[in-house]
Specification:
Mean pLDDT: 95
CATH superfamily of the largest domain: Aldolase class I
Distance between the termini: 52 Å
Strand order of the largest sheet: 2-1-3-4-5-6-7
Low-confidence stretches: none
Strand content: 15-25%
Largest sheet: 7 strands, mixed
Bound molecules: iron/sulfur cluster
Radius of gyration: 22 Å
CATH architecture of the largest domain: Alpha-Beta Barrel
Length: about 450
């Protein structure tokens, strides 16, 4: 069969961050390898970097099956392309999957889709492709197949999902990644290859959907196999995309030892928590020595009460200490903050002041977003101001704020972004960015918002 794998674009405007942060489609590359092993011909299309439209690729490739994967804010594009594929050829098998499908499979159960995969078990896809789409007998198999939703006589049925053991994954097929050497940058690090060593996260922060992936079960790879994989990748930059790579001290120490023993020279990016960084100066020093360049750290807040409110199980002092240690050992700490819905003007200003005082150069701010499908998010249903999933991108308010009006909140938000961008420009970070375009857009945001 000819199978088309689709990862839609994230937005159709400036905030697609094209050329700035482009994420390798690793899950689709795992599926690519599995499908090839099963004898299928595969084509991958990544809307983030492609110039050709998805519809043109569907028309030209005429796939027998399409698998679409994305996040909640890509839902509109996922559905648009699924519908197009089915209209193009009603015999095309249309399968929806990815992170959004794990939490929100019901939202993807449309008449033009055939299956929704609710787990990371991509081995289910070739099993589904063996079933004749229009024959009754396929239901004998589907009834007992975990992890999937399927249509029967116009009604969607949903089977139980089970956690996936990440050690079952084979190596991804990175053909598409290597065919695009000028893409997949992470800020100033070009062509950064994604490596995943674990699914899910052992923590349970309330705002975070990551810890609900894989049914909340943290599963991780043998670290020697991870290092083997890194050694096989010719690119210099490696983005370890685990939700929290800096979790198990012994595992991280083994990783450092293996990288040294094998004399692997790379630059690394990883997510980690400030409590781990603060408590392990020796590890931070070693990680810096073996090439860790960015730690992506959810600092989240500068207000002590928020740590408990978010169930972060952390302290503000760790945030400060982690910044100090990263300065000391020359690792860039990308501090990620939540702009809570109860922010006042003073708190927007206070956050900027704190960032400046702590000489934090790399910063990302996200508007608090009760994620679609996340337990607890239903508490916000009466204050929702949008039903467009495309707004769930952390750049938009999806709820009425507690104190400020929507307009005042956005004005403060854009003003904070302008100050952060000007600060970054003064400090020479993100020099590769077209600041003018973004700042003009933020100013427009201030002027246009009511
Ligand atoms: S915010 Fe970070 S530490 Fe907390 S659950 Fe999510 S990924 Fe884990």
């Amino acid at each position: 069969m000819r199978v088309l794998l689709i990862h839609p674009e994230e937005a159709r405007n400036l905030y697609d961050f094209k050329g700035i942060i482009e994420n390798e489609c690793l899950d689709l590359e795992y599926l690519y390898a599995i499908l090839e092993d099963a004898g299928h011909e595969v084509l991958l299309w990544d809307g983030k970097i492609e110039n050709r439209k998805a519809a043109a690729v569907i028309d030209e490739y005429n796939p027998d099956a399409v698998f679409l994967s994305g996040r909640d804010f890509q839902e509109n594009f996922l559905l648009e392309y699924a519908e197009y594929a089915k209209k193009h050829n009603p015999d095309t098998v249309v399968i929806m999957g990815g992170l959004h499908a794990q939490l929100c499979h019901a939202r993807l159960q449309k008449p033009y889709a055939d299956y929704v995969l609710k787990s990371f078990d991509f081995y289910k896809v070739p099993e589904l492709l063996k079933l004749p789409l229009h024959e009754e007998e396929r239901y004998d198999v589907l009834t007992d197949m975990d992890d999937i939703c399927y249509q029967k006589e116009g009604e969607w049925l949903s089977n139980p999902a089970v956690p996936f053991d990440i050690n079952r994954l084979k190596r991804p097929n990175r053909t598409y990644f290597y065919e695009h050497p000028d893409n997949y940058n992470y800020l100033d690090l070009p062509h950064a290859a994604w490596v995943r060593t674990a699914y899910c996260c052992p923590y349970r922060c309330k705002f975070c959907m990551r810890n609900k992936m894989n049914l909340g079960k943290y599963t991780r790879r043998d670290i020697e196999d991870v290092v083997d994989e890194i050694a096989e990748i010719p690119d210099e930059n490696i983005y370890i995309v685990d939700d929290d790579f800096l979790f198990d001290e012994d595992r991280v120490r083994t990783f450092i030892r293996l990288i040294r023993e094998r004399e692997i020279r790379k630059r690394f990016i990883c997510y980690g928590r400030s409590d781990f960084i603060a408590a392990h100066e020796d590890i931070v020093k070693d990680l810096a020595e073996i090439g860790f360049y960015y730690f992506l750290v959810g600092l989240e807040t500068i207000r002590s009460g928020d740590m408990d409110k978010y169930n972060k199980r952390n302290e503000l002092a760790n945030n400060e200490r982690s910044i100090e240690l990263c300065h000391k050992y020359n690792v860039h700490l990308m501090g990620m903050f939540i702009l809570d819905l109860d922010f006042t003007r003073k708190e927007f200003k206070g956050l900027y002041r704190w960032i400046k005082d702590h000489e934090l150069k790399h910063v990302a701010v996200s508007i608090y977003t009760p994620e679609l499908g996340l337990p607890g998010s239903e508490a916000y249903k009466d204050r929702l101001i949008t039903d467009n999933p495309g707004d769930y991108d952390y750049l938009h308010l999806v709820c009425r704020p507690d104190i400020l009006s929507v307009g005042a909140y956005y004005r403060n938000y854009y003003w904070l972004l302008i100050k952060l961008f000007l600060k970054a420009k003064r400090e020479g970070v993100y020099d590769f960015l077209d600041y003018g375009t973004y700042i003009r857009d933020f100013v427009k945001g201030i002027l246009c918002v009511k």
